[in-house]
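About this split. The held-out portion is used to measure sequence recovery: a designer receives only the C-alpha cells and must propose an amino acid at every position. Recovery is the fraction of positions where the proposal matches the reference. Here is one held-out target exactly as it appears in the evaluation file.
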C-alpha cells in the first residue's frame, strides 16, 4: 500500500494536526514507502490485525513497537502510525455499513485528542494509549457529539435500583460512555445534545424506551464539590448522574489529565495556570487524595429522568 497518500494528508489537515506532528508523520509515511522491507513488514502487521479482524490490538502494537525499535522510531509515534494507517480501511467499512459519515469523522477525532495528550505529556507526537483504539477500529465504539459510546454488560458484583425504579443486575445492558479531551466545554447544551443523539442509536435495546447511560471517571469524584469552583462545568456534568459507587485513593492516578507533563511533581510545585489546576493543586497539597466514581443516567430521549 502507498502510505503517504491523499487520504492520510487530508485526514491530518481536517483535524489541524500540529505542525510538529504532520512533519514527523509525513517523514515516516515517506520512509515506509521508500524502504521496502520496513513498509512491507509494517503492512503485514496492519493487515494481520484488520484482515481478518484480530481479537485484540495488543499483539499488533507489540509487533509494531519492536519494528520501530529496529528502525529507530519512537514507540508512541510508530504505534500512532499504525492506527493512522488503519483509518482509510475503517472509513471504507463505515461506508459499506451505511453509517453516517459525520459519525466516522467525529469518532476519528479521538486520534487528535490522544495525539495532543501525547505531545503534552510525553513531548513527542504519537499516542501512549494506543490500545484504546481497538473499540473504534472494531466499530464497537462511536462518537455522538461530545461523548463516545459503546454497549456494555453491567459486570459489578452488586445490583442497584435507580431513582426511577430501574433495577440493574449483573449482565444487564447499559450504554457506557467516555469523555475525550477534545477541548469542548461540558456545557448543558453540549451534554444534552450528545445524550439525545446517542439515544437514537441505542433506544432499541431498552424495551421501555429509557436508555441507561453509565460512566466511570475521575470527573465524577464526589469530593469535587468541596474544591472545584461553583461554576465548574465538571460539577454540572456530575449533576447529570446518579452515583452508584465511588472510590478514593492516596494517589491521584489521573494527575496527567490535569497537569500533563508536570504530573508527578511534588504537589506544591504543580502549575496553577488554570482554575482547574489551581483547585486540584490546592486540594492535593491539603489532602493528597484523588478518586473516581461510577454513575448512571436514565434518559428518555429528551431529558434526564430523575
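Reference sequence for scoring:
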Amino acid at each position: 500500500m502507498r502510505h503517504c497518500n491523499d487520504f492520510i494528508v487530508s485526514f491530518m489537515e481536517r483535524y489541524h494536526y500540529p505542525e510538529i506532528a504532520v512533519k514527523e508523520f509525513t517523514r515516516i509515511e515517506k520512509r515506509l514507502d521508500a524502504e521496502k522491507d520496513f513498509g512491507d513488514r509494517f503492512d503485514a502487521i496492519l493487515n494481520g490485525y484488520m484482515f481478518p479482524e484480530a481479537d485484540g490490538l495488543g499483539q499488533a502494537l507489540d509487533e509494531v513497537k519492536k519494528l520501530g525499535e529496529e528502525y529507530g522510531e519512537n514507540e508512541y509515534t510508530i504505534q500512532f502510525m499504525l492506527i493512522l494507517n488503519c483509518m482509510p480501511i475503517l472509513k471504507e467499512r463505515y461506508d459499506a455499513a451505511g453509517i453516517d459519515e459525520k459519525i466516522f469523522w467525529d469518532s476519528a477525532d479521538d486520534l487528535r485528542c490522544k495525539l495532543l495528550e501525547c505531545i503534552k505529556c510525553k513531548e513527542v507526537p504519537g499516542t501512549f494509549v494506543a490500545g484504546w483504539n481497538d473499540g473504534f477500529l472494531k466499530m464497537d465504539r462511536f462518537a455522538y457529539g461530545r461523548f463516545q459510546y459503546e454497549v456494555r454488560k453491567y459486570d459489578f458484583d452488586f445490583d442497584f435500583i435507580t431513582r426511577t425504579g430501574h433495577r440493574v443486575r449483573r449482565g444487564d445492558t447499559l450504554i457506557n460512555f467516555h469523555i475525550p479531551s477534545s477541548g469542548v466545554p461540558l456545557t448543558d447544551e453540549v451534554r444534552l445534545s450528545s445524550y439525545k443523539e446517542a439515544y437514537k442509536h441505542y433506544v432499541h435495546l431498552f424495551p421501555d424506551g429509557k436508555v441507561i447511560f453509565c460512566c466511570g471517571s475521575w470527573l465524577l469524584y464526589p469530593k469535587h464539590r468541596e474544591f472545584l469552583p461553583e461554576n465548574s462545568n465538571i460539577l454540572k456534568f456530575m449533576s447529570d448522574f446518579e452515583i452508584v459507587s465511588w472510590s478514593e485513593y492516596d494517589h491521584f492516578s489521573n494527575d496527567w489529565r490535569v497537569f500533563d507533563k508536570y504530573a508527578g511533581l511534588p504537589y506544591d510545585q504543580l502549575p496553577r495556570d488554570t482554575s482547574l489546576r489551581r483547585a486540584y493543586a490546592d486540594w492535593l497539597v491539603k489532602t493528597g487524595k484523588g478518586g473516581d466514581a461510577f454513575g448512571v443516567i436514565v434518559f428518555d430521549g429528551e431529558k434526564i429522568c430523575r
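Annotator remark: The chain has two domains: 6-131, 142-250+289-299.
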